[in-house]
């Protein structure tokens, strides 16, 4: 990408690859990379008309933030591109560091603004990719981490793409100079206490004194790691299919029959399929050790955003199970007519319940207390505890159940998390 037209051709090709009529957004920080990307995209859209918009995220972390916004407004106005500004609050208390917290807030802003079907272009380039690879390697990451940033991915109906990922920063600087482009420099880029800045300002320039194309070769290694990660994902998908296809419930015996690396791979893959955070390496090893030692015993391993439990020979992967609200009994029982939305101290659900004979009902709803019995058609009165065992309700879900009473009789059991009826007494049905 050394000739002056190569970058523009790259953007033209990327634009041609987006579905006709779909909106393309540019994540515009105001720096060199994103300012040039917006300029190239605006040129491309003049030749090949597409809806083009710019999105600037105002983090409010430094005094220069207002200046970034002013520059973005001037540039977007000059190019005739509509600009949206998203102001975010960056949570610096969650232990992710300033860079991680800002990134999380930024991506949340992207998700709020983009509509399904839209495409978001980010301006990262080959030097950024090399830095990301080195950071991942220094953290001891596996293949997925070493794959660094993908050139594109889809999620929630939206497409994220990095059309400049194959270009060097030197190529971007040369094109910006040729166009007389003006941009703003983030003062924090000079802070070498930040790992990425240290790599950018100290390590990579030193590497390139010995290996002049170091950044390009590191970026190439990241691309190859990405291909390997894709193949591993295919292998994990095949293993999941062989084990029944349900990522939330993996059979322990069949899981144990896999090699240790494939077990780790499958559990990570299952978590990703479920939208759960993947377990850190130590937590994952703890989980595998407990599976080996206890098989169907009391296994529970938790990590931020997820947990794993074993019951009836299956490994259950899920979001953390929330304990029932300890409200001291206040607000219970809840009166309900079986038709209006059920509003309780634990939340509200749109469910219905009626008597088969159509008679009006006056119901009371309360958490399961123990000792409840329901009369079932053809089976007589059954103890709810044993009935839940028969129904395969895991123990950690039983404490979150709501029992519906008509008079002194328990007539139905609701699982609030899925808003579904677990069992109904004789003479009762869902309306």
Structure explained in plain terms:
It is a single chain. A hairpin with a 2-residue loop joins strand 5 and strand 6. By secondary structure, this protein is an alpha+beta fold. The protein has 3 domains: 218 residues, Rossmann fold (3-Layer(aba) Sandwich); 76 residues, Uridine Diphospho-n-acetylenolpyruvylglucosamine Reductase, domain 3; 96 residues, no CATH class. The protein is 41% helix and 20% strand. The strands form 6 sheets. Strands 3-2-1-4-6-5 form a 6-stranded mixed β-sheet.
Overall mean confidence score, pLDDT:
90
Major sheet strand order: 3-2-1-4-6-5
Secondary-structure class: alpha+beta
Determine and state the CATH class of the largest domain: Alpha Beta
Question: What's the arrangement of secondary structure elements?
Answer:
Layout lengths: L5 H11 L7 E4 L4 H16 L4 E7 L6 H15 L3 E5 L9 H17 L5 E3 L4 H13 L4 H4 L5 E4 L2 E4 L7 H11 L15 H16 L3 H29 L6 E3 H5 L3 H15 L6 H14 L5 E4 L2 E6 L2 E5 L15 E3 L5 E3 L2 E3 L4 E2 L7 E5 L5 E4 L3 E4 H8 L3 H4 L3 E5 L2 E7 L4 E5 L3 E2 L2
Parallel strand pairs: 1-2, 1-4, 2-3, 4-6
Antiparallel strand pairs: 5-6, 7-10, 8-9, 9-10, 11-15, 12-13, 14-21, 15-18, 16-17, 18-19, 19-20
Helix pairs in contact: 1-2, 2-3, 5-8, 5-9, 9-11
